[in-house]
Amino acid sequence: QAQLAESGGGLVQAGDSLRLSCEASGRTFSTYTMAWFRQAPGKEREFVAQVDWSGGSIYYAGSVKGRFTISRDTAKNTVYLQMNSLKPEDTGIYYCAARPPRTVTYGDWGQGTQVTVSS
Fold first, then answer.
1. What pLDDT does 33 receive?
2. Distance CA 67, CA 11 (A)
3. What is the mean pLDDT of the chain?
4. Is 6 in contact with 20 (CB distance < 8 Å)?
5. pLDDT of 81
6. Beta-carbon count within 10 A of 107 CB
7. Backbone conformation region of residue 104, classed left if phi is above 0, alpha if psi is from -120 to 50, else beta
8. What is the pLDDT of residues 87-107, one digit of tens each?
9. Do residues 15 and 73 lie in contact, with contact meaning Cβ atoms separated by under 8 Å?
10. What's the DSSP call for residue 29?
11. How many CA atoms lie less than 13 Å away from 105 in the CB half-sphere?
12. Which of 92, 34, 22, 42 is nearest to 64 (CA)?
């Protein structure tokens, strides 16, 4: 069974950095588009960033562009989210997700990792 396991969350101060990891198992995700979403308290889950199978096509939400960097290591079946210049509004649960090529729905999700940014 396919599983996505996030790690790397924590409590940091505004301006600090964190690196999230998402390790995939149970299936080869090398052809999948991988993404990060987040959900702040009392808000709906929102898209953060995605990377295609090759790493050549990357998209970011406007709120994180220039501060966050998504990358993947296919050999390790792992996706990363480097988060710099963190702001209190970046606080939330961060989820890793995967979707097969030529689809639009993310069908595989991790359990999430908490990121809290204090001011």
1. 95
2. 18
3. 95
4. yes
5. 98
6. 11
7. alpha
8. 999 999 999 999 998 999 999
9. no
10. -
11. 1
12. 92
What number of other Cβ atoms are within 10 A of residue 111's Cβ? 11
Contacts of 106 (CB under 8 A, 6+ apart): 35, 37, 97, 98, 99
Contact 65, 33 (CB under 8 A): no
Across the beta sheet with 18-25, the strand order is 3-7, 18-25, 78-83, 68-73
CB 41 within 8 A of CB 92: yes
Query: Could you report the per-residue pLDDT of 19-56, keeping only the tens digit for each?
Result: 999 999 988 888 999 999 999 999 999 999 999 988 88
**Length of the chain in terms of residues written:** 119
Please name the helix (run of DSSP H) or strand (run of DSSP E) that holds residue 44, with its range, or none: none
